[in-house]
């Protein structure tokens, strides 16, 4: 539902009647709206000083210090708004995103404390061109899944390299395979399985270990040409509503950092550490996000997996394997 400011007001119908009628008239056109669960919520396009933050529907503690009392009251009352016909729209959803320049600074966001957000949530302003800029892959990458039984399919092939290392030879794109969304590539060297070093192990021993392991399974690989300051970790959710145990925080400037990792959550076995700077979440670069709240929204609304690329704090060292 789209509005513009009325200059004069004369004998308006009650707000509830006007908004209800306008919504019924516009809902079929799906003009600039967001989907949350099974409901369609119209986005209100206003001048910059009256812009309503889309994050308000998700975060319970969003500051409204950016608008004065009269402005906030006029938006709440709706007394100076009238429906704008779709043909008169002069701005797009991208224009709306650019107007949110007064975002609250959040100290920390516990992803798992968010109320249930449907996996159908449409995140504002994300398009293919906004996906992660080309950067070197991380030197170390991990994938954590929950393996229900010994018969569960992983979808990863291994081979012995010329140097004797065990390397990823193939990855299945079958969504039923647990590692189908792992950030691995052909040629990556297998480092560890559940913190057990794979150095010196043969293909038969590794295959047996992968097959017999049930429950939480974490595989770590090394990309020899990768950036040693970066790590990339993927966790696969058993269900769309599964908790991740990850906390994110807004740091100085636009940086988003890992603020906490639940020791019983899936990211506890990943390569992430507290204070790491998050560079992207599920291929969405953090410079395209409006703070830690939106990063949390991406994580909580992901249906199958969450992949985080992070830059390690200088004094953080990723544990990729334990000595036998």
UniProtKB/TrEMBL annotation:
PROSITE patterns: PDZ. This is PDZ domain-containing protein. It comes from Seminavis robusta. Residues 142-225, 232-314 form the PDZ domain. InterPro entries: PDZ, PDZ_sf. Signal peptide: none annotated. It holds the Pfam family PDZ.
């Amino acid at each position: 539902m789209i509005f513009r400011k009325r200059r004069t007001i004369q004998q308006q119908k009650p707000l509830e009647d006007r908004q209800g009628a306008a919504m019924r008239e516009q809902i079929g056109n799906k003009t600039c709206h967001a989907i949350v669960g099974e409901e369609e919520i119209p986005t209100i396009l206003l001048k910059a000083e009256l812009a309503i933050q889309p994050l308000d529907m998700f975060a319970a503690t969003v500051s409204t210090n950016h608008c004065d009392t009269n402005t906030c009251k006029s938006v709440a009352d709706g007394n100076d708004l009238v429906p704008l016909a779709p043909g008169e729209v002069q701005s797009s959803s991208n224009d709306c995103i650019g107007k949110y320049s007064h975002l609250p600074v959040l100290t920390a966001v516990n992803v798992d404390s968010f109320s249930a957000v449907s996996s159908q949530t449409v995140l504002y302003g994300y398009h293919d061109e906004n996906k992660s800029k080309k950067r070197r892959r991380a030197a170390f990458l991990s994938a954590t899944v929950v393996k229900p039984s010994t018969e569960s399919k992983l979808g990863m092939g291994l081979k012995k390299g010329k140097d004797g290392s065990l390397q990823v030879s193939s990855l299945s794109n079958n969504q039923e395979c647990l590692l189908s969304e792992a950030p691995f590539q052909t040629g990556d060297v297998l480092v560890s399985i559940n913190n057990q070093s794979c150095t010196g192990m043969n293909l038969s021993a590794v295959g047996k270990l992968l097959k017999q392991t049930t429950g939480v399974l974490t595989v770590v690989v090394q990309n020899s040409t990768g950036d040693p300051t970066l790590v990339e970790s993927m966790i696969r959710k058993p269900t769309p509503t599964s908790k991740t145990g990850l906390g994110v925080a807004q740091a100085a400037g636009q940086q988003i950092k890992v603020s906490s990792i639940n020791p019983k959550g899936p990211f506890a076995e990943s390569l992430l550490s507290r204070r790491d700077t998050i560079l992207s979440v599920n291929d969405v670069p953090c410079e395209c996000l409006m703070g830690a709240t939106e990063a949390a929204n991406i994580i909580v609304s992901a249906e199958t997996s969450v992949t985080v690329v992070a830059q390690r704090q200088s004094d953080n060292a990723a544990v990729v394997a334990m000595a036998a």
